[in-house]
Amino acid sequence: MRPLAIIGGTGIDDLEGLEVIRDHRIQTPYGEPSRPIQEGRLGEYTLFFLQRHGSPNAIPPHRINYRANLWALKSMEVGGVVAINAVGGITDAMRPGRIVIPHQIIDYTWGREHTFDEGQEHTLLHIDFTEPYEQALRTELLAAANSATITHEASGVYGATQGPRLETSAEVQRMARDGCDVVGMTGMPEAALARELGLPYACVCMVVNPAAGLGDLPLTLTMMQEVLVREAAVVRQLLQQLLQNRPASSHA
Ligand code: HPA
Question: 84 near 9, Cβ under 8 Å?
Fold first, then answer.
């Protein structure tokens, strides 16, 4: 089994505990990834890590080169990608501090490079995206959350917005009517590009704030960051358990 890659989001600038063995600087036909890909060891496990915002948080969600990031990971022949995303909570259960393993996506982003299909290969990339996350990897994440006794939501609809501004309260109400449980800015086109490349991809969300109009206080980055610090530690625990549960061949 090939090692997994982790794509870190806001609040996961480095994978704490990752003993970095080397940095892979990769050029892709789409340009450079957000940062060199770190190859390292987490305990006895090999892992690749890429922070999608560069370091630290230099690249806003709409300027991330998602194609280069996914292409680079594919070229490293990773066995799958676990994406970590900070989100706002929309439905009742999605309170700050909660970990969510979403099962669906609604894409509200626009103007991003969202496909590898440039119309030149004469093979249309009409990928099946009915289930946007890879079921086997989701199941592994859920099993890890259960065995590490991490309180989590086992499903949820991720609404991907363009950013970098936060939403209006009317936009959040519309998203709630559409069926979104959480809102974030980086879930797409990342998930679809992974599918185009045939990379197993699943996502772990950290709810860091009530979405716009749903809390008592104005949304601030400081508020989100406080929750993020606590949740990042839980996500690390979840990843550790995920690796521990994997077959021994990924422990090389
Ligand atoms: N909206 C969009 N993206 C986010 C939010 C939010 O409320 N919180 C963290 N990322």
Answer: yes
Q: CB under 6 Å to ligand 1: residues? A: 86-88, 161, 166-167, 183-185, 208-209, 211, 224
DSSP classification of residue 28: B
Residue 148 CB-density burial (10 A; 0-12 exposed, 13-18 middle, 19+ buried)? middle
| Residue of higher predicted confidence among 112 and 225 | 112
Of all protein residues, whose CA lies closest to atom 7 belonging to ligand 1?
88
* Separation CA 50–CA 48 (nearest Å): 7
- pLDDT bracket for residue 57 (50, 70, 90): low
Q: How confident is the model at residue 122 (pLDDT cuts 50, 70, 90)?
A: low
What range does the domain containing 134 cover?
4-117+124-250
Contact of 203 with 81, CB cutoff 8 Å: no
Take atom 3 of ligand 1 and give the residue whose Cα is closest.
184
State how far the Cα of 51 lies from the Cα of 33, in Å rounded to an integer: 9
Mean per-residue pLDDT over the chain, rounded: 93
The dihedrals phi and psi of 207, each to the nearest 5 degrees, come to -80, 120
- For helices 135-147 and 221-245, what crossing angle results, to 10°? 100
Distance of CA 183 from the midpoint of ligand 1 (Å): 6
Which CATH number goes with the domain that contains 137?
3.40.50.1580
CA of residue 242 to ligand 1 center, whole Å:
26
In sign, the C-alpha dihedral spanning 159, 164, 169, 174 is negative
Q: Is the pLDDT of residue 171 over 60?
A: yes
Residue nearest to atom 6 of ligand 1 (CA): 88
Structural domains of the chain, count: 1
